[in-house]
Each structure stands twice: as C-alpha cells, then as structure tokens.
Write a structure and sequence with these properties.
Length: 424
C-alpha cells in the first residue's frame, strides 16, 4: 500500500481535481489538507459535473474522504455541499478533523474590511474569511471543529471572541456588531449537524497506513504563504510539505509526490504574473480553456507556461513525477512558447525571486515550438503505444519540460473527462 500526494505547481487551477479523481479510483482514502472554500475543484464524469469547495474530490467515487486539520471550514458551505451531493444520490463518507479551524462570521466581515482598507494594495482575497481565520489560528484565537461540537466550550469561546471582534469592528469603522446568543445558536446547530463526522483524524490516518491514501492539495505552490508571490498569496502552506502539517502524516510515509502542471499558466486576482498574455493568445487560452474560477467565477489571467515557476514549486515540494493537464487548450496556436529563464537587469536568472521589485523587472526568456492539432484517435493511439506515438512537435514540447525540470511526466490530460487521460 502507498501514500500519494497531489499538489499544484503554479497559481492554482492546474486541474488537480481531475488528477485526484483519476488516482482516486485506486485509493481507499482521500485527504484534503489545507485551504478553505476559497479553493475549488471541478470533476466531470460523463455528463455530470461536480464542483467542490471544501469536500475532498474522493467523495464522488464513494471513497472515505477526510478534511484534515490544516483546512479552515465554513460549516454553512460544507453542509450545503453535503446536502447537494445527497440530492444527487451520493452519501459522502466524510470525516472531519477535530483540529480543523472554523470560519466564523466575524472572519468574513474582517476579510472585506481589510481589503477595503488596503485600497490600491489589495491582495485579491475571495472575501470568504479564510485569511482572518488562519490569522486567528496563529494568534491562538481560533475556534476548532472540536469546539464547534461542544456547546459548553463554544459558548465560552464566543463570550470572549465576540467582544474582542466587536471592538475591532469599531476600530475599523465597521457598523456591524455581532451578538453572542445569535452566533451561538446558529453555530451550535452547525455543530449538531456535523458532530458525527468529527473525530481525531490523525489517529484514523495512522491506523489506516496499510491502505491506499491520496493527499489532495488546494490552490498552487505559488500561492504558498512562505514560498509564493508574497503578499499576493493565500494564507496556508500549499506546497508538498503542507500535506504533513495539514494531515498529521509524516513526510517519511509519503511514497509519491505528483506535481500538477497546466500546459500554460493562469492566475486569478492580483499579483505578479511574468508570462501573462494580455492579447489574442491570452484570449485563446481563456476561452478554449474555460478559464473561469470554480469558486469566484472570475476570468483567470492567462499566459505561457513558466518553467521557472514550475521548477521552483517542484524543488521545494520534492516532486517525484509530473502530471500535465489541459494540453489540448494549446491546439490551434501556430506557435507555442515556454519560459525557461528570466532576464532581470540584463542578468539571466533561473530561480524565482522573492523581492517584488525584482519580480517586476522580469523579462521572460522563451523557447518556441511549432503548434499542433491532435484528434481523439491520435490520443487513443498514445494511450495504446505511449509517448512515442505523439506527433514530433508535441513530443518535443513535453521532452523540453522533462529536461528542464529533471522530473518525468507520468500523466497527460487532454480534456476534462476521466477517459481523456494518458498514464505513462
């Protein structure tokens, strides 16, 4: 038995949901280990499309699905997703960590206020309270799922926290004031609904080490709070290492680390994006790739594949293989470009800088490839015969990625459906 980890190597939206769903067929347990409902996964099964914000992708396959301690949970959103699945005839086998933190109403209010206060320096949050919830976690002011299902503890925590947050609202000039009784009544109802799903997931996962476990990341490595384009990041650890801190599974127990690489690059919201194409190329990628956020509905910014970004993500996450997604979106372009290095002040740079001023000076150095078009029959042949059946220009493109990263490509996805996948 083995433990696999799937993480995103860019700014999220790499197609992790499909990759997790694909590998989830052989998994016994699927674990979501970080983020909140600011992330989203889309899974297509035949004519059915499932969009999740909190539920692990494994619920569709009927797998035991774990929300780990590193996730921040909006109970209202989670309950809505559970009920929507039940309406579609699926009963999720869900376990929620008693250590996962809870997004409270004051987190959402503060999220919007802080963004407004930033003015032109907004970081582009989704406004769903994720950042303030993680802030409270680090400041030791959080409410955890174990507290939510214990009315006495919940009441005790709220008596202090609501008073504190109302004072902060006043300082921000926010007119809203929260009432302890109202918040307690609402959230104790959530706790009652979810209590049978809440348990010590660390114990459960360690007792399940003899099974196939799949660890599922949200967002992407370039949104990591430490290693991403800070401060234009999320508030959790999105790299491979976040899987251990967000689940309780030690790094030594993880057998395979799969980095998901979209065949081009996208980003939602604010922040640096060196290979962005604000032109017909970007329009082609957005429209053909249906690049609109699962969570926000916002159109994604689009650009060429940036291997400096990808190499940075693979390096810090210890990737053992790569899954290429959405390669079909590049079809129809006469030329395809890949950035493999940067020019900063006339100096060639192979690593992604931390300083925003340096990032602002980046001029990508590209390698060009001849474009391609492939039929479904050609992809079927690749499934049967492997990489050698690919047209030479597609093979050259993929070979370049392997050479630059030093990591082999294990999977190629050429469409949203499960069957539109080549495993190598």
């Amino acid at each position: 038995m083995s433990i696999k980890l799937v993480f995103g190597t860019q700014w999220g939206d790499e197609g992790k949901g499909k990759v997790v769903d694909y590998y989830g067929e052989k998994a016994d347990i699927v674990v979501r280990y970080q983020g909140g409902n600011n992330a989203g996964h889309t899974i297509k099964i035949g004519d059915d499309v499932f969009k999740f914000h909190l539920l692990p992708s494994g619920v569709v396959r009927g797998k035991i699905s774990v929300i780990g301690n590193g996730v921040v949970v909006d109970p209202e959103v989670l309950i809505h997703e559970i009920e929507e699945l039940r309406k579609r005839g699926i009963e999720p086998k869900l376990i929620i960590s008693d250590r996962a933190h809870v997004i409270m109403p004051y987190h959402k209010i503060l999220d919007g206020a802080e963004e407004r206060f930033r003015g032109k320096k907004k970081v582009g949050t989704t406004g769903r309270g994720i950042g303030p919830c993680y802030s409270d976690k680090i400041a030791r002011l959080g409410i955890r799922m174990g507290d939510l299902i214990d009315p006495e503890t919940l009441r005790e925590r709220l008596e202090f926290l609501i008073q504190l947050k109302n004072r902060i609202f006043e300082a921000y000039g926010i007119p809203e004031r929260l009432d302890v009784d109202e918040v307690f009544e609402k959230y104790s109802e959530y706790g009652e609904y979810l209590k049978d799903m809440v348990r010590d997931t660390v114990e459960f996962l360690h007792m399940s080490m003899d099974k196939e476990i799949l660890l599922e990341g949200a967002q992407g490595a370039m949104l990591d709070v430490d290693f991403g384009t800070y401060p234009y990041t999320t508030s959790s650890s999105t790299i491979g290492g976040g899987a251990s801190t967000g689940s309780g599974i030690p790094p030594s127990k993880i057998d395979e680390v799969i980095g998901v690489v979209k065949a081009y690059t996208t980003r939602v919201g604010m922040g640096p994006f060196p290979t962005e194409q604000e032109n017909e190329i970007g329009k082609h990628l957005c429209e053909k790739g249906h690049e609109f956020g699962t969570t926000t509905g916002r159109a994604r910014r689009c650009g060429w594949l940036d291997l400096v970004v990808v190499k940075h993500a693979l390096r810090i996450s210890g990737a053992t293989s790569i899954a290429i997604t959405k390669i079909d979106v590049l079809e129809g372009l006469s030329r395809v470009k890949v950035a493999y290095a940067y020019d900063i002040d006339g100096k060639k740079v192979d690593n992604f800088p931390a300083n925003l001023r340096d990032i602002g000076k980046i001029s990508p150095i590209y390698k060009e490839f001849e474009g391609w078009n492939m039929t479904d029959r050609e992809w079927e042949k690749v499934k049967e015969e492997g990489m050698d059946a690919l047209p030479s220009n597609v093979r050259e493109y993929l070979d370049f990625i392997e050479k630059e990263t030093g990591i082999r490509i294990k999977m190629i996805s050429y469409g949203p459906a499960r069957e539109e996948t080549v495993e190598l």
